[in-house]
Amino acid sequence: MNNTISVLICIVWILCEAAFSQTQTVKRGRNEGTLYIPASNVMGNGDITAFTGLGGIITSEKAEAGAEIGGAIGIAGILQVNLQTSFINFNRLGPTEAHLQATIPGNDRLRFFGFALAGDLYLSTSLDTIGVNADSTKPEFNPYPLFSAIMDLDWLSRPKQLPLKTYVAFGLADDPKLLFEYRQLSFKAGFEVKRYQHSLFIDAGMGMYKEKNNSSSTRQTFDQRYVWVSPGGRYRLRQRFSLLGSLRWTVYRHVDKTSSLDPQWFSINLKFEAPLFFRETNTEAIRTMVFIEKKKEETNKEQTEQDIAAKSSVLTNLENTMSDIQKEDETFDYKKEKEDLIKRREKVDALMNEIEELLNEDKE
Amino acid sequence: MLVVLLLGVCMPLSSQTDYKRSRGEGLYKCESANTVGSGDVWVHLRVLGFLWDADPEAEGRPKPYPFAEAKLCGGLFNIAELSLESRALSYIWDQKPQFGSIVAGAKVTTPNNEDIRFHGFGLEIKYQHNFVKAFSSIAGFRNEGTGFYPEGFAVAGGTMTISALYDLDLIAKLSWLPVKMYANTGARIPFNKEYVDYSQYLIYLGAAYVGLGADVFIEYSIEAFGNTSTDPKKFSFAWPGWGGSAKTWEVAFPENPMYLTIGGRVRYPSGLVLYGAVPLLLSQNVGSAMTDEDRKALSDSKNNPNGKFYDEWLRGVTDPFDPWYAKWKIILQASFPFFYKMTGAEMRRNFLLLKNRRDKKKIDIDKRIDLQQGESEQDNEADRKKRLEEIKKRREEIENKE
Q1: Gap between the Cα atoms of A163 and A300, Å rounded
Q2: What is the pTM of this model?
Q3: Quick one: closest CA in A to B321, which residue?
Q4: What percent of chain B has pLDDT over 90?
């Protein structure tokens, strides 16, 4: 199993190197969030990202390591599918998940408020021997179709252009391994300082558990819960690959002593993300331009303190770009862009309608 | 396969926007009534997997069942399609992989498929030869390669499947609604006379949003045993592995393999099509289940009118049955055309989809920087030339003065 994972990682790395050897700007995915909460935006149409992760957890009774591998693909500009599976202690198949995330319109611009709903399909790999038709000789591996919601605020789109993104997420799964045994609620919040390449974030969350009716227990409320915090960061390698890491502590835990529930006390997680197929989205292009503009302002400030003559002779390419952006004054002028687009669209629509009519006549 | 798949995806893309779509694209079980274009050849490589049962030798760990399949489809005379598919890697038995099956099929459609059609009708005939000798079966209800697989009932040797195909393509009438509905119905009949009574009728229904570069779909499928009444289908066998003792069990209608499949596909201009689907089991248990508790209750119901399953005992049932099929499966597929010529129908579909696409203006940072760099270099070059010309002029002036 270890060899399989190593080989897969190597293949992904080599292909990525070959495919993206001429990168110039940062390849930042629109769906990039923190380690525990993805952004409400979805990936660009047809974009594919592969990821792999390593982690370890410590609970009251055990220490466990694990690995995960998966991929995500953007569909039609407003949908994204994530598939992932994991390996417990590197030798046992863990939860396998498929998520279909749909976001609200405005996905392809730098929006302040973002919202997404996700259909989460957890394909259980835990031996369910307590289900209605299951016993120890006939375990079941049931699918659990659930949902989750994500809301985020992108403060970079505000006039003050703060490089901060805040997230709130709600879901019906906290630990997929225990879905056959417990109904679950998960609340998460995150703050991310999102810089040009790298970012720092802190997540906090609460998991609430209620034993299922078919369990021998009589506890019927979400009275078992724990609260955790997790600081971490995203470090971008070679402007396109992301290395995410975080530490997670449980700061509050209320678990019944007679329950088999044993939430983790501490965990460490590392994740590597590689875009296999990437096309720049407007959202992230605008974000990049905001950072470039800011950099230019900073550069200007420094240069006013220097010799004006020297300054004027060393215009960098970056500054030229920014001058161009300023001259054109169209990057952020949505109204103008929209009007132009509508005019062009009307012309194209008229032509296409003519072609369609001709085709229909031909068909008849 | 993974390398081929990734290479196909990572391949530098041209500015081509005509996605190579197959006219005969179906869903998971649902087949399209249409056929692939004449002379076109498509290859489909598929991996499929699920978890089922537990491995007692590995501390009760989940037992994964991985399979590998390949399919080749070729279009003929614009209205016919021939296909050859194989499950190359099937159930592992005694730690040895077994060859699964070979399926040869032929499909014909009504000859009005040159353009997109609102209604489409087709007929498909398939011959399947199942080579599996042994497999992990539901409750041990198995005679060599025949019996209840985790995926449903199957018979060793030859089986014939005949299906009537229909699809409704809404884009033909409403160009802004790229939705396609599929309906297939048919019968699967074993060649082995002993099992003919256990032929199955098949119903597959599906709906798909067929986009320019991506599709999403949902499908319902049932493979049911034919019954002349609403009573459960009774099985009564004394197969060799059971030491001569006969077993009788019943399969009620809700216990037939029924799946709800959700999935989608993404097309790349290079021709590669990536496909993923997850079938989820809908079948429900009726009557006694195959748990220790129900086995005992069924046994206790013998001559006992107060027994929990007395009615089953009266019908001669000796063993319980429940739909312990794989609860979920994962299917991943990569398809690509070996020979391809765009058909009129799919060209028109691409046109209608492009026409109704609300595409946005893209901002390309790299291009902007490149453009700026290019302009800057051009400016420098122009400056150099200008300076050179000025120097030449001054030189000529000086020489003239002299």
Answers
A1: 20
A2: 0.75
A3: A133
A4: 36
